[in-house]
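Dear colleague,

As promised, here are the two records you asked about, laid out in our usual form so they can be pasted straight into your sheet.

NAME FIELD: protein one
SEQUENCE, THEN STRUCTURE:
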Amino acid sequence: MQLPKLIYWFSTVLLSLLLLFSAGMYIFNHADVVVAFEGLGYPSHIIYPLALAKILAVAAIVSSKVKFLKQLAYAGVFFNLLLAFMAHIVSGDGAGMLAFLGLFLLGTSFVFDKILKPKHRSAFEV
């Protein structure tokens, strides 16, 4: 397997596991997540829709069937992780490193997806 493909799949799988773990926590450990969200200043009624959005984003990023949905999933996950990172920084609880790791994995997955699937191919390429 070539190195760019290996890096893409490694970062994408780790990002997917991070998002699925987070969604699982939102669903199965709801009481603790409500306390954490309220501590960060977010309303608790967005927990279940956010869990569903994370699961759907993983499906869109991994499947690569519809390019528009994949781009939308990358954008949604980017904003989610960026806002999570900033909320943890502002609150000073020191828990923003997972969000930062997620941003790094997201960026790596996105860049190597673009490397592996270039938008424009040469007309003379076989």
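NAME FIELD: protein two
SEQUENCE, THEN STRUCTURE:
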Amino acid sequence: MFSRVALIALLFGFAAVEMQVRGALASRPNIVVLIADDMGWDDCGPYGNRRVRTPNIDRLAREGMKFDRAFVTCSSCSPSRASIMTGRYPHNTDAEQLHWPLPRAQVTFVEKLKAAGYWTAAAGKWHVGNEVKDRFDAVAEAGTAGFQLPSGPNARRAGMIAEQDESGCGNWLPALQSRPKEKPFFLWLAALDPHRDYKLNTIPNPHKPEQVIVPPYLLDSPEVRRDLALYYDEITRLDRFIGKILDELEAQGVATNTLVIFMADNGRPFPRCKTTVYDSGIKTPFIVRWPAKAQAGSQCASLISSIDIAPMLLEVAGVEPPKTFQGRSFAKLFADPSQKIRDHIFAERNWHDYDAHGRAARTERFKYIRNFDANLPNTPPADAVRSPTFQAMRRLAQVAELPPELLVCFRKPKPAEELYDIERDPHELRNIADDPAHAETLKGLRERLERWQRETDDPMPGLRNPDEFDRETGEPLPNRKRPRLSKQELLSHMKAKTP
């Protein structure tokens, strides 16, 4: 039997260990990831567009580090999110097509944080399927009435009322306010803004069509300007909720050691943006505020990919990353933004409403695109096809009055290969793949893309599905079905039909 002295010593030992564990948890940063839905990288103040009102995104940039060369792996909602969570390229997640759920077998950074003592919660747009919801302690999807925690010691905070708002952000603040105070926390806060469809008077002081900036690959017409103004309105609505989160972090006294990321899942839902591998599709606004580590008002020009987020978050949390991750942590850039972690980023285009298959490799200066679907035009998503912007461009294309640089979404066939000098041609309007002066660059990037495909087991042409919408009107075709079969279900279905 233990003597009284030995028992007291043992109890003190247990108490010391518990204090050490609590101290270690307290030193780890809290993490908040804010995700815009379909927002162009340059459609906010920090990236040069002062016409759209984004005071809270501007605040993040003033107080944090702005990344100028951040890219998602796929300009498509659910594949992009699956890639972020798993640190893997979409074709390696088995969720590379729109609406394909992330399979349960995939490892995400979320359960690693959870196992390390973090409280994990998601609020807003979900869109990665039901198989990985249990990686979070709590999930409140957009449109639900309140943020509900599971039963247990934290149930006393359940049922906080969400703000009823079409932004999808109504549960963001209740999620942050519901967190248990004794643990570090991770929040995945995803908006529905600025995804289509758009409405008038989304915000009290709407943007004026004459004030918008029309990108050079879109038609400058009254219809397009009105469309862009409504899109701006939703960005400003989203910005308000970002401000609420920043203010609440301050009110709770945890802002200094909370790492906040703001980004978008893909580009704006307009022609030649979302679903493409042009920078207008895959380049993302990316701002990190972490007062304890990242210098306020700093800027980083290094290439990073969205697959690098997962290993970075685990590194700063002191968690060993799993071997399934394909990305590289960029945590060292917070202390020295002049460093580099990669020479290339890679992106892919897969089925999203329409049959598609393309790949891209990008350096700091050049972009190489390989179109394995060269027989098909670069049709934007179905909601963008139905938009006033696309329909205005379509009408002029039909009568041969649309300028050549605006015909990308209508040209069929399109080039099998594209090469752009981003430094001289930032909007990727001049394909120099046939320019002898750039033959070596073309060859080098082609070989690098092919090596990446071999390294990541990206078979060609891959699984291809037919269109589910009309490419001219965006209306559903008879073969459109919901819910979509998962990749595994589709493969099983195809195998059963094979004689």
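A couple of things worth noting about protein two: The chain has one domain: 28-499. The chain has a mean pLDDT of 92.

Best,
R.
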